[in-house]
Write a structure and sequence with these properties.
42% of the residues lie in helices and 13% in strands. By secondary structure, the chain is an alpha/beta fold. The protein has an 8-stranded parallel β-barrel, surrounded by 7 helices. Strands 1-12 form a two-stranded antiparallel sheet. The chain is globular, with a radius of gyration of 19 Å. The N and C termini lie far apart (56 Å). The structure holds flavin mononucleotide (FMN).
Length: 351
């Protein structure tokens, strides 16, 4: 059965909306900021802005890679880009392979740059893409960085997916060498472990998006798409909490984007306190946009940022740098995992 890449884009959106997930499945119920009853701060002075890849963000959020490549999804990227611009947050377009192959759908990606000329915008391709493809994807949207996605579990669940995963590290090295902008390697929902992160750093990658489990579940989505609705899981990915802590445990940790199942200010604040630079959100904003409206998406982003600022105040943090020095307690399954893997974590509680 041949299914075009364009059709797959629409299936992914439809099935992502069907397969809801609940907050907390990403392990962040195990991560607690420690309340500060005497913060000596005014809410007005709480500042969640930061600089990243030479651009200023008003809040540490990324609307992560979702779509592009079908005429019907141009409106989605338009809305996401408008929201990113309005709130000064970062955005990534979905995999640009379709736009490289078919010039007729290029505008479904370029709209994101047209709508937000000065914003922080990431290109996106598979980590199997050639350096030439990466350069073309960067140029297509004048990208500030490029995301290369790793999605072994998803490919294996797709009847038409890849089966040979050899040579990808070498390929990433070549793309890093050729790229005029930073290269971000991201998972899409199964997480990165520290050994993988170390290999990616050695390959020259400077930024990792952990893409942990507990949010949008692409293995399940592919099983549904292939009519294997009853397929049982064949892998247990790393939760976002575990993956973030694994990657940050490296001696020289990279710039880390936390993603996978984030939809609440408290979890976002906890990821930032542990050491994530920004937090990526995909399934939830997509749901709000499609099931409600762009206005509802804007209100939700406002709610996230306002909640983050209140949480920062209640942790005694005026800035994101302050937040990253505040005590964080790690308990439950996440702590047990880290102990079993010999990854130190108690120091976060004693800051
Ligand atoms: C409909 C949909 C399409 C996606 N397409 C891409 C893609 O093309 N490239 C990519 O790297 N990630 C893609 N993702 C994955 C997201 O960028 C993100 O890593 C993942 O959804 C986990 O975040 P979440 O739990 O907040 O949804 C997609 C996600 C959704 C919901």
């Amino acid at each position: 059965m041949y299914i075009s890449r364009e059709q797959r884009k629409l299936d992914h959106i439809r099935l992502a909306l069907q397969t809801a997930w609940n907050p907390g499945m990403n392990g962040f119920r195990d991560i607690s900021l420690v309340y500060e009853a005497l913060p000596e701060l005014s809410l007005d002075e709480i500042d969640p802005s930061l600089s990243l890849f030479k651009k200023k963000l008003q809040a540490p959020l990324l609307i992560n890679a979702i779509t592009g490549g079908h005429p019907k999804v141009k409106a989605i990227n338009l809305s996401l880009a408008r929201t990113a611009r309005r709130y000064g947050i970062a955005m990534a377009v979905g995999s640009q392979r379709a736009g490289l192959d078919n010039p007729q759908v290029r505008d479904t990606y370029t709209i994101a740059r047209e709508e937000n000329p000065d914003g922080l915008l990431f290109a996106n391709l598979s980590a199997t893409a050639t350096p030439e493809m990466a350069l073309a994807a960067i140029e297509m949207i004048d990208a500030d960085a490029i995301q290369l996605h790793l999605n072994t579990a998803q490919e294996l669940a797709m009847p038409e997916g890849d089966r040979d995963f050899r040579g990808i590290s070498d390929n990433i090295k070549k793309v890093v060498k050729a790229s005029p902008v930073p290269v971000i390697v991201k998972e899409v929902g199964s997480g990165l472990r520290y050994e993988t992160a170390r290999r990616l750093l050695r390959a020259g990658v400077s930024c990792l998006d952990i893409g942990g489990s507990g949010g949008t579940d692409f293995v399940r989505i592919e099983h549904l798409r292939a009519d294997h609705a009853h397929a049982s899981p064949e892998v247990r990915g790393l939760t976002s909490a575990v993956s973030l802590l694994e990657v940050l445990s490296l001696n020289l940790p990279p710039l880390v984007i936390a993603s996978g199942g984030f939809s609440e200010p408290l979890e976002i604040a906890a990821a930032l306190a542990l050491g994530a630079k920004i937090v990526g959100i995909a399934g939830h904003p997509l749901r709000v946009l499609i099931e409600q409206s762009e206005e509802a998406l804007n209100q939700w982003i406002e709610h996230l940022i306002a909640g983050l600022r209140r949480t920062m105040l209640m942790s005694g943090a005026r800035t994101l740098e302050d937040l990253a020095l505040k005590p964080v307690v790690i308990t439950g399954r996440t702590a047990e995992w880290l102990r079993t893997r010999d990854i130190p974590y108690e120091h976060y509680a004693r800051r």
